[in-house]
Design brief:
Blueprint (H helix, E strand, L loop, with lengths): L1 E3 L8 H9 L7 E3 L2 H12 L3 H20 L4 E3 L3 E8 L2 E4 L6 E4 L2 E8 L1 H9 L10
Antiparallel strand pairs: 1-2, 3-4, 4-7, 5-6
Amino acid sequence: MGVYGCGPSHLSYNEIIATYSLGMFLKGVKVMTKADLVSALEKQANITHKQAESVINICFESMIKALYNDDRIEIRGFGSFANRNYKAYEGRNPKTGKIVKVSPKKVPFFKVGKELKEMVDEGREKYVIREA
């Protein structure tokens, strides 16, 4: 995992957008990127970088397709992904105060699994987390 916050010069455009949108562009906050996942898979599975990148891309593409088709994704011990549907409503533009109509929308939602929640809560002392 990389530590970001000293400036965006070492980040790709997609990493900068993802980091800002997650609200994590703070000094010293660790952010795991797709590149970090590829690197970890490459080292732990002893496969080439291209193979690891392909596996990660296939996983993400499969998950995106499932959510696009309104399927639920369940990964035991980790968590589940599902879409949440929101009805249309009237909101306000914070700059102008004007009333605007917000269209109905579907948003992916992640619910953490029990085992992951416990692992994070207990910390590194109880569970062995292998470093890449």
